[in-house]
Amino acid sequence: MKKRILAAVLSAVMLAASAFGCAQDGNKQPASGNTEAGDTIKIGGLAPLTGNVSVYGVATNNGIKMAVDEINKAGGVLEKQIEYIVYDEKGDPIEAVNAYNKLVQDDKIIALIGDVTSKPTIAVAQKAVKDRIPMITATGTTADITKAGDNVFRACFIDPYQGELMAEYAAKKLNAKTAAIIYDNGDDYSTGVADAFEKEAKEAGITITNKEAYQPGSVDFKSQLTKIKAGNPDVLMIPAYYSDVALIAAQAKDIGIKSKLLGADGWDGVLEKIDKSNLDAVKDCYFCSQYSPENKDEKLQNFLKQYTEKYKSEANMFAVLGYDALGMMAAAINKAGSVDSEKIIEALKNLEYKGLTGSTTFDENRNPVRDAVITTIADGKYKFVENFKK
Amino acid sequence: MGFFSQIVNGLGLGSIYALIALGYSMVYGIVQLINFAHGDIIMVGAYVVYVILVIMNLPIWLAVLGSIIFCGIAGVLIQRIAYQRLLNHDAPRISLLITAIGVSIFLQNLFQLLFGSDAKSMPKMFSFNSLKFGTLEITSSTTLNIVVSILMMAGLQLMVSKMKIGKAMRATSEDAGAAKLMGINPNTTIAFTFGVGSALASVGAILYCNTYPQIKPIMGGLLGLKAFVAAVLGGIGSIPGAMLGGYLLGVSESLTNAYISSSLTDAVVFGILIIVLIVKPTGLLGKNVREKV
To answer: Which residues in chain A have Cβ-Cβ distances shorter than 8 Å to B2?
Structure first.
């Protein structure tokens, strides 16, 4: 019996290994015929291409691949073609570290784009700091990631930044004097944004009338909303994901809350979760996001169109950030004028990159500084309001 | 005024628990089975409303009627297919319980397969102006929940105490063998009980959709569990007990959310259950029951 189990495990491992090998070959860029060291610029990638969070990984990876193709067509980096080598880490920190070791030791990459979700990214960043590999995570939002070391950068906003940004927006643009917050007590994103919003709002002179928590999975928010209503705040901040937002907004309207609603990028997708008959619940809302498909920028519109043609699905935030992350790295290598890690890291620190998400520089914590997009909902559609920078 | 608003919020939520608790209570009363699939009947009812109202775009009265009838039939079918043979062969209670869990998992997965696992949004269903008493404002959905749940309980109580089928139900619950000798068909009676219980769950589902316009295949799980707690709290087997349990649960949830902490809601709810069961093991209105159906 034991032998049989062992055989089954072994064959499973072998099968997985061969599948792994195929995936890797398939993802090597066809443009790079010659794989000898020195003839191409090798950039590694880590993404969950299968598993629970594969939706994010696949989109990010697609965005990165489009950037690679585009740069290679235009002549590459330092007059060499980029060779993008990506491994599937299935959303698992241990797999991610193994894949990272493979990238560094076997493939001898000079820079890394990845990982996609926060936990594996933190694990990989610890290793990358020791190897001094220049690394950009496209979408890892946890603040700690870039604190690992000065070679770790990110292309997306961190959670607290969005809270601060919306507090500032409420004070400056909406002239809010009072605000309330309702947030998911069991979710890091939600609590992170809520805390940052509260702190920044107080500094901007806004009185917080109520800060109410709810449990993950709740559907009834009336107790919390009744308390909020009594304070009659100018704005109500809801830093949650779109499904919860749809329920909270509908109930807030139901009990007669008239405040403007604020949110962060978790709101993206709320329109699909709210029925037309309830749309007036979100008629007076403002939420920030990293980019807006409504933005008429030519480069962005081209990207969205090409992406849909190539992958037969709509590009989302992950694809856009993946594209920009690779673009940043390529720009930094060009600026450094060599493949030396220290020079690339130095170049990234002083980089001013203009991509799909707008013009980006990095702050002292290697987080991006750029305009956020403020979006509202009107006539059942997302509507671009303005760019806003803290 | 805030305090009264919170009480009213709790009653609105509690009404939905109460309607579902009635189904648990009736089925337990007649076959001593905790029908764990009952929570998922709510989900089925909600999806039927979704199909008729949103996908087929038909009028709302049809959706309500369709959902109630569909759930009633589904309840009878589940009893016939899953439980009847076990009951007739006097299978151990534990087999019935496991079967009920199986039915619950089956329904959840079936609906995930049919509709996908993500949440679906529901349209606004019934809407009228809020009632106002001074500064106290009761929203249309809360008013509807409370009124409908009271009407349903009154109707059910009337049926059980006055109608022939109600008498048959009480007889079967007291002694199925003796009832059979008196010319009552226990199988039909039990199936009818399941049907009525499921139809009530569907009414609960409709009120739920109207109050919380979002449904998903796993929504029945926690809702069913809370309703079960309500039934036990009030005294399982007792109709007014199920209602009382539902209201009590809703109000204590609402007050905990408002005045203590949302993270303690479930702790308070189950704490109340434990205390009640220690002091009065049969539940608040559960006597050494004659009125069990």
So the answer is: 226-227, 230
